[in-house]
Design a protein that fits this description.
The protein has 15 helices and no strands. Helix 2 packs parallel to helix 6 and helix 3 packs antiparallel against helix 6. The longest helix is centred in the middle third of the chain and has 40 residues. About 5% of the residues have low confidence.
Length: about 375
């Protein structure tokens, strides 16, 4: 005799909220451990085809992983060297830029006070109080701790990647043992689709980032803006963050143009960035990135903000690929398919659920 127990709707909602709170709380307090592992897992999935490529030539698994890790490290250090040379040049002229920034700030304060009939001293005191509050909230000790954690995680990341690649078969066998035999086909489908999404999304994102970096750098060189290479790379990296990254990038461009050129160059830079963003949004992303990850714009913005609130900047970068993985899982579970549909970018032209039909039926019944 089987007894079925139905959980009331309000109890389900309460359990969902409690589970979400526990998950977010765990992700927040354990971010120093979880974030490097998530990054390592994603990078390992991306590098796995290269390891398989070398293993096809009957090269030992350990040696194949070592070759791939070596090539990846060389490329990474090459990028770091290129950025560091640009940063050193920027650091040499940093005092001059600060002086120009103070001059421009004083000019703006004078214009603002004249325009809105406010005393210069009032505006200056407000800016001074804001600076003091910012310095107070900065907390040098915490920032040094964050830098220390970043260095430790940077050293652990290659170790995690190596271990995940080496113990791949063990991890897959563990996942298969978690589910019954009748569910193995669905689990394999989820794993395959997840691997495809991560590999295609990250490769597409890297191609997009490379194209945007070249376009930004070339455009800034044409305009004669200093530090074109480092600005082009920074903007391309920020562009990974949907919508918000583009806003931050154009602000940086315009600020550097203001400090190193005439104010009119802010307009030139804004036009340049707008043209590049138009090309990116209408030609590069649809062909290279969006065709690989089917997440709608509304959900993209929301998950980026949530990722930033829980994990900071690393969470912003991880939000889209993790959401894409969640969507794959939702699409393969019947009870969660509506949520998978909500995350997707398929917008129906009409809905079967129509308020007008319901209202018209009610009116007809009353008559």
């Amino acid at each position: 005799m089987s007894i079925s127990f139905k959980i009331p709707f309000y109890a389900k909602i309460a359990l969902i909220f409690i589970s979400c709170y526990a998950l977010i709380f765990t992700m927040n307090i354990g971010q120093e451990i979880i974030i490097p592992i998530v990054y390592a897992l994603i990078i390992a999935i991306l590098l796995n085809p290269l390891v398989n490529f070398f293993m096809r030539f009957r090269i030992n698994k350990l040696f194949s992983i070592s070759i791939v890790m070596l090539f990846t490290t060389i490329i990474l250090f090459g990028i770091i060297y290129l950025v560091s040379t640009q940063l050193s040049s920027f650091y040499e002229k940093y005092p001059i830029l600060v002086e120009k920034f103070n001059t421009k700030t004083n000019e703006f304060i004078h214009w603002f006070s004249v325009k809105f009939n406010i005393k210069d001293s009032t505006v200056n005191s407000w800016i001074t109080d804001t600076k003091k509050e910012s310095i107070k909230n900065f907390k040098i000790g915490e920032r040094l701790t964050d830098v220390g954690h970043l260095i430790v995680n940077g050293l652990l990341l290659p170790v995690y990647i190596f271990m995940i690649l080496y113990y791949k078969s063990l991890l897959l066998e563990f996942i298969s043992k978690l589910f019954r035999m009748e569910h193995h086909e669905a689990v394999i489908e989820v794993l395959v689709n997840t691997k495809k999404i991560i590999q295609s999304y990250l490769s597409g994102l890297f191609i997009e980032m490379l194209i945007i970096a070249v376009m930004n750098t070339a455009g800034l060189f044409i305009l004669g803006i200093e530090y074109a290479i480092i600005l082009g790379i920074i903007s391309a990296v920020l562009n990974i963050i949907p919508y918000l990254g583009g806003i931050i990038g154009v602000v940086i461009f315009m600020l550097v143009a203001l400090l190193t050129k005439e104010p009119i160059y802010m307009v030139y830079v804004a036009i340049l960035y707008s043209v590049i963003q138009f090309i990116d949004n209408n030609y590069i992303i649809p062909k290279v990135v969006s065709s690989r990850v089917k997440i709608n714009a509304l959900v993209s913005v929301i998950v980026v903000l949530i990722g930033g609130a829980i994990w900071g900047i690393p969470g912003m970068f991880l939000s889209i690929p993790l959401t894409a993985i969640v969507k794959v899982i939702f699409d393969h579970i019947d009870s969660l398919k509506p949520w998978g549909f909500l995350l997707g970018n398929i917008v129906p032209t009409s809905s079967k659920f129509s308020f007008r039909k319901i209202i018209s039926k009610k009116v007809t019944l009353k008559i």
